[in-house]
Amino acid sequence: MNLPICSPALEKGHGVLSELHMTAEEIRSLELQGFIKNAISGDECTWALTQHGKDVRNYFLSKRSLLTRIYDWVMHDVLRMDLTI
Asked: Edge to edge, what strands does the sheet with 14-16 contain?
């Protein structure tokens, strides 16, 4: 999956922005969506995953159960509902 929230660099949950190896636009997008929060610590900018970011990351990276996949299929393909998080 090629979503910024699924980046292996976010695995630790916090760190320095330079360690993320992402563009400024991707970092800003994650911040605007409420997935990370930024702070300045000393001379460097730091980041930390928010609880919302952890939840969304776990959703995308976890293996979904059969019941969840059936529910998603019914909502998307049968009822034509395209819901986003």
From this structure: 14-16, 44-49, 36-41
Q: Where are the alpha helices (DSSP H) in 1-85?
A: 24-32, 51-61, 66-73
Whether the full predicted model's pTM is greater than 0.85, yes or no, is no
Q: How far is CA 1 from CA 8, 13, 31, 44, in A?
A: 11, 19, 19, 29
Assess whether pLDDT exceeds 60 at residue 70: yes
In the block, tokens 């996949």 appear at 69
17, two tokens = 């922005």
Domains along the sequence of the chain with CATH: 4-78 (1.10.10.10)
Extract the tokens encoding 23. 């563009």
